[in-house]
Amino acid sequence: MKAIWQKLHNIGGILHLPDMPHWLIGLIALVLVLRIPSFFEPYYYGDEMIYMSLGTGVRQGLTLYKDIYDNKPPLLYLTAAVAGSLFWFKAILAFWNLATIYIFYKLAEKLFPKNEKAQKIATVIMAILTTIPLLEGNIVNAELFMIGPSILAFLLLLSDKLNIKKIFMAGALFGIAALFKIPAAFEMPVVIAFWFFSLTKSGWKEFIKNSIALTVGFAFPIVLTFIWYFFKGALNEYISAAFMQNVGYVSSWQFGKTQAPFLVRNAHLLIRGGVVVSGYVILFLSRKKLSPRFLFLATWVLFALFGVALSERPYPHYLIQVVPVVSLFLATFFAEKSYEQSLVVIPLALTLFVPVYYHFWFYPTSTYYVRFLNFAAGRMSKDAYFNDFAPTVTRNYQIADFLINSAGKNDHVFMWDPDSPTVYALSRRLPIIKYVANYHVLDYSTTEEVVKELSINPPKFIVLTSESPLPPISPLLKKGYLKIQQIDNAEIWSRVYNSGNATKR
Q: d(Cα 111, Cα 114) in Å, to the nearest integer?
């Protein structure tokens, strides 16, 4: 066995791979095994399907936000475009996750330099929680991508020989993380707040210089995207969709309050901001009694929890943002005997309070793997396996097969159903309108406006379901469409005449 490990290390040296301890190699191997079922998942998960649909649009030459829409920054959609299929999307996530685990291990090593037990505990907890379905570790979501650059940024900023170049690079990494998802931006102030703990009267100049370098670094990749979309003629749409509309998204979860005054609509947000400020003030007043590591982690958890609870939506993958720092706190609790070992109960209790208070739901893990083992062993058919993820999976695959065989690559289609992004992603066909999901239309347009646009540029096929009727479309169907196919509760209508001049977006 020793000889095998030695050969592996020799191969790693030749390939210039990082020299990892044996336990970390074993952990990475375990993560890969745990991710195997994700490669066999069907096209079904709503957010993934939106990412894949927008990726299809990018591959077809459409401009994000202007020609095809969602309300996140561009890097996740560009990753989906590079992947081209759900399998490769999952594969990119898997290897990104492995890289993130290694970077996190280096951060744990930095924070616990003489405590290998703490390094192991932190890394194992982080690796498992970002992999298993409990917090949707098996799903391609932005949180799993954004934590990697943020962790690397922290690692750079905690280096022994800190300089302006490293600070700028760390800021750029925070900016890249925010280009996956906006809540990552709340992790950059952690560093400035941490620097402030040790600020002296003579250190103001360096503090301001370093803070500016970090901020400029953060802004650098974001400004580059502004320049790109400016030359694409879509800057206003980009800023509105990826940044400004997220302000409305934050307050939209409080049903019935979207038209209320700002203070009423955002009261919960302001209260959470007050909790962050209050927590930081307590840390500042206690800074001489606490170690730099505890101050750093406690500040990190405050800002990360603010990001987690930003929209008040109970989606498990939001909690991924706080997993790295919670893992480090748990390592402190289980692997250290010190005054601060008992203090970590406070941030851990605060972390537990958030998902309980906001009623976060969680996904079963054991059933996920048992189901896959049954499928892999032949005890479960492919259709049964797929439909166990969602009851409409088979229907959606059948609709997509029809569109692939009947619609040309440049033909537009339109589907009105909660699963429309799934069908778009599977068939690699897109609607003439910029919206791929029903809720996009309901939030940012109207069904009447959509039908009007369809009348001007009629798609080749229209797919409607009894589950989600679209009343305004009846005149258009009667005028120029023929029902040609019924798949479960889905009606497929084909255009029988050329009305107007359908234009490319």
A: 9
**What dihedral do alpha carbons 8, 12, 18, 24 form, nearest 10°?**
-20
What token pair was written down for 351? 């972390």
Q: How many CA atoms lie within 13 A of 31 on its CB side?
A: 27
Q: What is the DSSP string of 61-78?
A: TPPBTTTBB-SS-THHHH
Tell me if the pTM is above 0.85. yes
Q: Residue 404 CB: number of other CB atoms within 10 A? A: 13
Task: Report yes or no: 132 and 31 within 8 Å, Cβ to Cβ.
Answer: no
**Which among 417, 405, 403 is positioned nearest to 459, based on CA atoms?**
403
User: Which distant-in-sequence residues (6+ apart) come within 8 Å of 339 by Cβ?
Assistant: none
Q: How far apart are CA 178 and CA 175, in angstroms?
A: 5
Cα separation values, 380 from 376, 386, 394, Å: 8, 10, 15
8 A C-beta contact, residue 197 and residue 284: yes
Alpha-helical (H) ranges within 130-187 are 142-157, 164-178
Q: In what order do the strands lie in the sheet with 490-495?
A: 413-416, 461-465, 490-495, 481-487
Number of helices and strands in the chain (H, E): 25, 4
430, 56 in Cβ contact below 8 A? yes
495 bridge partner residues: 481
What tokens were used for 134?
């409990």
State the Cα–Cα distance between residues 418 and 415, nearest whole angstrom: 9
Task: Output the CA torsion sign for 113, 118, 120, 124.
Answer: negative
Spell out the residues 6+ positions from residue 44 whose beta carbon is closer than 8 angstroms to its own: 386, 389, 390, 393, 396, 422
Instruction: Say which residues have a Cβ less than 8 Å from residue 282's Cβ, sequence separation at least 6.
Output: none
- Name residues whose C-beta falls within 8 Å of residue 248's C-beta, 6 or more positions apart in sequence: 258
Q: What is the pLDDT of residues 328-378, one digit of tens each?
A: 999 999 999 888 999 999 999 999 999 999 999 999 999 999 999 999 999
Task: Write the DSSP symbol of residue 201.
Answer: G
Sign of CA dihedral 112, 115, 119, 125: negative
How do residues 403-429 score in pLDDT, each as one tens digit? 999 999 889 999 999 999 999 999 999
Instruction: State whether residue 381 is helix, strand or coil.
Output: coil
Report pLDDT for 312. 82
Per domain, the residue ranges of the chain are: 71-357, 393-495
> Residue 356 and residue 308: Cα distance in Å, rounded?
13
Amino acid in position 398: Q
* Inter-residue contact 108 to 99 (CB < 8 Å): no
Q: Residue 269 in 3-state DSSP? A: helix
What are residue 360's phi and psi, to 5 degrees?
-60, 135
Q: Which residues of the chain have pLDDT under 70?
A: 1-18, 246-266, 497-505
DSSP at 359: T
Tell me how far apart the 2 most distant CA atoms of the chain are, in Å: 79
Phi and psi (nearest 5°) for 416? -115, 100
Q: Are 150 and 174 in contact (CB under 8 A)?
A: yes
Residue with tokens 């999976």, as numbered in its chain: 393
